[in-house]
Q: What sequence folds into this?
């Protein structure tokens, strides 16, 4: 509860933007290469990088706590021999491989799980997260980083973040210092290596060239479950086809995606009002009338199916009963 309450508190967020954050703004677009073809190229580039670079795994394992600033990635010397193998590990030996489909192309991406995170929660692909990060090109150039934690909506950043960040838990706890800064205990820490198709692809962003594979070091501190249209259905549940893309789910074909549609089945009853299940929390006054014991609905429209056809009322135009009736 403490983490959730604090998440909504206003912090002074400072961005150091060498180019731009991992969002989609300020881009210059050129004609696209076929995504399937480009992915083959990108995967070869990423694998070559992973096979020729190492990181300071031993040093990190000896630290009681570490930050992304302590993570060092280096190229093998010309001899091809790993220096100090008791201290260093090859990236290719430690990365985890993920596979996803994005914009009809299948992608492999890679990440190091350096610390899982001690919190109980892990974000969904559509949630908000509080993070620190550093973005690098494969030649080592830092194109963006943060000095203090920033908040991102994972639906508003490059697709690779929505695949990798949910693999980590948030921090176990936090403490507020007298100077207003915050210390986080045992956050999730990792490094992602993503192909251009899960990054900016054919768009140039600041100093990032087109078709660039990218590296992001990151710490995941906190999360908030997003409900973009405030209909009491978390946005990740509004991904009806389960493809991690909220922009192709429109149950009622009204041109409004479900995650920003307050009436998902266009039956005239708002999704939030199709919550009819008995109130399970008598301490919360859902209708604001001063009496928490007379509310209708349990705060979850997804478990109401009046006609028993397997389709929740909020997606079933045949069920338009409202808790206000």
A:
């Amino acid at each position: 509860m403490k983490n959730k309450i604090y998440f909504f508190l206003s912090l002074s967020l400072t961005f150091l933007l060498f180019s731009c954050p991992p969002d989609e703004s300020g881009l210059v677009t050129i004609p696209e290469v076929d995504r399937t073809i480009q992915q083959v190229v990108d995967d070869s580039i990423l694998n070559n990088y992973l096979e020729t670079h190492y990181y300071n795994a031993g040093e990190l394992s000896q630290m009681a706590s570490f930050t992304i600033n302590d993570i060092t990635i280096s190229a093998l010397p010309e001899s091809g021999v790993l220096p100090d193998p008791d201290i260093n590990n090859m990236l290719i030996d430690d990365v985890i491989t993920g596979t996803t489909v994005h914009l009809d192309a299948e992608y492999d991406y890679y990440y190091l799980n350096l610390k899982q995170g001690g919190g109980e929660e892990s974000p969904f692909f559509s949630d908000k997260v509080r993070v620190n990060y550093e973005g690098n090109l494969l030649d080592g150039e830092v194109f963006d980083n943060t000095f203090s934690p920033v908040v991102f909506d994972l639906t508003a950043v490059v697709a690779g973040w929505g695949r990798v960040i949910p693999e980590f838990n948030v921090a176990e706890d936090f403490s507020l210092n007298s100077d207003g800064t915050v210390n986080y205990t045992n956050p999730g820490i990792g490094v992602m290596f993503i192909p251009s198709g899960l990054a900016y692809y054919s768009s140039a962003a600041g100093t990032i060239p087109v078709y660039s594979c990218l590296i992001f070091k990151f710490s995941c501190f906190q999360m908030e479950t997003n409900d973009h249209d405030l209909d009491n259905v978390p946005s990740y549940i509004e991904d009806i086809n389960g493809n991690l893309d909220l922009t192709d789910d429109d149950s009622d074909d009204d041109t409004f995606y479900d995650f920003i549609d307050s009436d998902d089945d266009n039956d005239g009853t708002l999704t939030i009002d199709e919550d009819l299940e008995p109130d399970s929390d008598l301490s919360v006054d859902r209708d604001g009338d001063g009496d928490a014991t007379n509310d209708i609905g349990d705060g979850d429209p997804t478990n109401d199916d009046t006609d028993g056809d397997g389709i929740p009322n909020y997606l079933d135009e045949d069920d338009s009963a409202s808790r206000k009736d």
Remarks:
- The chain has two domains: 2-224, 227-325.
- The chain has a mean pLDDT of 89.
- The two ends are 34 Å apart (CA to CA).
- Residues 227-325 form one domain.
